[in-house]
Amino acid sequence: MQKSVDKDTLELLQKGDEDMYRNIFNQLQPALVIYAKEYVPDADMASNLVQEAFLKLWEKRQNIKLGTFLNAYLYKSVRNLCLNYLRHLKVQDKYVGNVQQIQLNYEALKDKSAERLLEGEIMERIQQAVEKMTPQCRRVFELSRFEGKSYKEIAREIGIAEKTVENQMGKALKVARAELKEFLPITILLYNMMP
User: Tell me: the pLDDT tens digits for 99-153?
Assistant: First the structure.
C-alpha cells in the first residue's frame, strides 16, 4: 500500500502550498520520467508528459480526496498521457520505423496487469514491514499513514506523549524504508510527508 494523502497534506495541497507541491514533484518526477521513457520513444516527450501530469495534479488539487495515493494517482496520469501520445503517433504514423515498437508499448500500457502486479508487490511489502514492527510502533504507523491522524491526535488516542509518537513513527518508517528500498520514491514520500 502506498502513502495516502493525510489531512495535513491535503489541506496544504488544496490551499496551493507551493513548497508541498515542489516537494512532491522533486521526489516523484525522476521515477515518473523513467516510467514514461519505457513507453514513449522520445526522452524529451516523456519528460514533457510527466510535467503535464504534475500540472494536472496542481489544477485538480481541489478534487483530491483524503486517502488518495499520490504515487498511484501520478503513475496513472502519466500512463494515460503516454497512451494518448502513442495514440496520436499511431494516427499520424510519424515514426514509421518505430510503428511496431509504438504498438507494443501501446499494448503494454493498455494492459493493466503490470500496474496491478506492482501495486500488489508494494502492498505485500508494506504488510511485511508492518508485521515486523512492535505493537505500539505498528499502531502509531497505521493511525498516521492509513487513517491520516496527526501526532497530537495519535498521542491522545493511545494515551502516550507526542514525543513518543514521533519516536515510534521514526522506528516505523525505518522498518518501512528497509522493506521498500526497491521502491525508493514511495519510501521517500512516506518519510518526508510526516504530519
Answer: 556 665 666 656 555 555 556 676 777 788 888 889 999 898 888 877 788 889 9
Our count of domains for the chain comes to: 2
The domain of 195 spans: 112-195
Helix (H) or strand (E) holding 145: none
Give pTM, 2 decimals: 0.49
**Which residues are CB-neighbours of 127 under 8 A, at least 6 positions away?**
1
Distance of CA 162 to the CA centre of its chain: 27
If asked whether residues 107 and 184 sit together in one domain, one would say no
Torsion angle of the four alpha carbons 118, 54, 35, 101, in this order, in degrees rounded to the nearest 10: 120
On whether both 154 and 60 belong to a single domain, the answer is no
CATH number of the domain at 67, please: 1.10.1740.10
pLDDT digits (tens, 9 = 90+) for 42-72: 889 999 999 999 999 888 888 877 666 777 7
